[in-house]
Amino acid sequence: MDFTTTTTTTILFVSAAVLFLFSVLFINRRRSLESRSPVVVNTKKILLGSMGWPFIGETLDFIACGYTDRPQSFMDKRRQLYGKVFKSHLFGSPTIVSTDAEVSRIVLQSDANSFVPSYPKSLTELMGECSILRINGSLHRRIHGLIGSFFKSPYLKAQVTCDMRKLVMQSMAAWEEDRPIYLQDETKHIAFQVLAKALIGLDPGEDMEFLRIHFQDFIAGLMSLPVNLPGTQLHRSLQAKKKMVKLVRKIIANKRTCNVTISQGPKDVADVLLNDKSEKLSDELISDNMIDLMIPGEDSVPLLITLAIKYLSDCPKALLQLKEENLEMKRRKKDLGGLMCWDDYLSLPFTQNVITETLRLGNIIMGVIRKAMKDVEIKGYLIPKGWCVLTHFRSVHLDANHHESPHHFNPWRWQNRDMCNGSNTCFTPFGGGLRLCPGLDLARLEASIFLHHFVTEFRWVAEDDTIINFPTVRMKNKMPIWVKRENYIW
Fold it and tell me: What is the C-alpha separation between 296 and 317, in angstroms, rounded?
């Protein structure tokens, strides 16, 4: 009896253990299959992927790769496992990641009925509800259209050319040969002043310095913890924005009082919006958006210039051709007895190829995030309502199927290809669709002006420096260079 009881107990225990083991294996297998199963059933293509850890998903892996010299490794690993479109969980949201050029193009070109912009909570707190970076529909189309048209105007291009050239020459005149020049800081200081003048007509002086200092406090909170309490970075950033908005409102009120914009034509973006007849644009909305428009513009031009010079420093052949092209233009304009116009700077083909290749390889804008407002099917993939889509530009720009030797700086790849407008599916450095960056032409113009004066007036040696890719692209040591002035006889 004891033996039978013991045997029975043993059998029951072993059976229970086996059943438990099979249950665990079944659950794990089911979870594994779920992680590699379609997001929804009845879709033509299976969306594979992993949702990572509870709550944090795969965010830590994504960030960790961003701090390495191979930020693309997060995407490359998953693309090999799951394909060019896969699911993940990033920054608190279930996310479809697109490294497919065509899928990304469709997402970017979709209207607000399908996709709307999505940003980290700290960023939405700082931008506010009426920011052009967040609003959708007819109001967004109206503001974006007004700004885009003005940014393309010959008047503004001529003004930016004059301002940029003056500031570049002033900055370079103060450079000394016995100390390093921190190129990233120099270009940021120049580009911010050009941007402020184009947006609100602000000239160098006390107000410009006030705006610049508080803007640095403001952008420090863009990727901060979303906690608005005294002492937190978000709180400090919000206070800085209030001070900036107060200054901009004073400038706009003065424009209203003087009432010169209608008779003389708009001289800056604020004038353009004040002249709008739709009566939808209040002074408060205009003031807030002047600050928000500085967010994408403040970093893009300085980094474009800084990265171009880094890549040129590592590619003597490209530097020599760029220098010869710009010296030839300088000689020609000297013989004609005039200054270079904005279209002269943009007419230099190899200079534009260098800028285009810098945009492709540097990936100043890694990608953009959109949120699905309804179930959307793209190329057989069904994207569920409420999920985010990360259109990852860097993956497309560094895809060997689109660009030969993609990690190699090769400006010659753009010869005989019109890529300046950024409209190609495999080249989207400024985004695309309804939210295509309206300042893309001005970014190219400012970079062209700086490069022209830099390579025709200096030779230099760049110290070793590395590119950091998260949370934004930047040089770890601010790109220190040692310069020597050239003594050309004209």
Answer: 32
The pair of three-digit structure tokens given for residue 466, joined into one six-digit string: 């590395």
CB 245 within 8 A of CB 291: yes
Residue 298: closest CA among 480, 474, 71, 66: 474
Looking at the DSSP bridge assignments, the partners of residue 49 are 87
**Amino acid identity, position 487:** N
Q: Kindly state the helix (H) or strand (E) to which residue 382 belongs, with its residue range.
A: strand 381-383
CA distance 388 to 317: 43
Q: What Å distances lie between residue 329 and 98, 318, 346, 485, CA to CA? A: 42, 17, 11, 19
Cis-peptide into 71, omega within 30 deg: no
Q: Is the Cβ–Cβ distance between 35 and 50 less than 8 Å?
A: yes
For every residue of 215-263, DSSP letters joined together read: HHHHHTTTTS-S--STTSHHHHHHHHHHHHHHHHHHHHHHHHHHT-HHH
Q: Are 201 and 260 in contact (CB under 8 A)?
A: no
Q: What is the C-alpha end-to-end distance of the chain, expressed in Å?
A: 114
CA dist list (Å): 397 to 80, 333, 436:
17, 36, 17
User: Quick check: helix, strand or coil at residue 149?
Assistant: helix
Angle at Cα 213 formed by Cα 211 and Cα 215, nearest 5°? 65
pTM of the complete model beyond 0.85: yes
Identify the residue whose tokens are 């893309």. 440
- In the numeric block, the tokens 């062209």 are attached to 448
Residues 332, 290: Cα–Cα separation, whole Å: 39
Give the pLDDT of residue 338: 84
Q: Where are the alpha helices (DSSP H) in 365-439?
A: 393-397
pLDDT digits (tens, 9 = 90+) for 388-437: 999 999 999 999 999 999 999 999 999 988 654 445 789 999 888 888 88
Q: Go through the chain and tell me how many residues it has.
A: 490
Q: Tokens in use for 206?
A: 């006390």
**Opening angle at CA 104, ends 353 and 406, nearest 5:** 40
> How far are the Cα atoms of 3, 20, 22, 24, 450 from residue 14, in angstroms, in the given order?
16, 10, 12, 15, 77
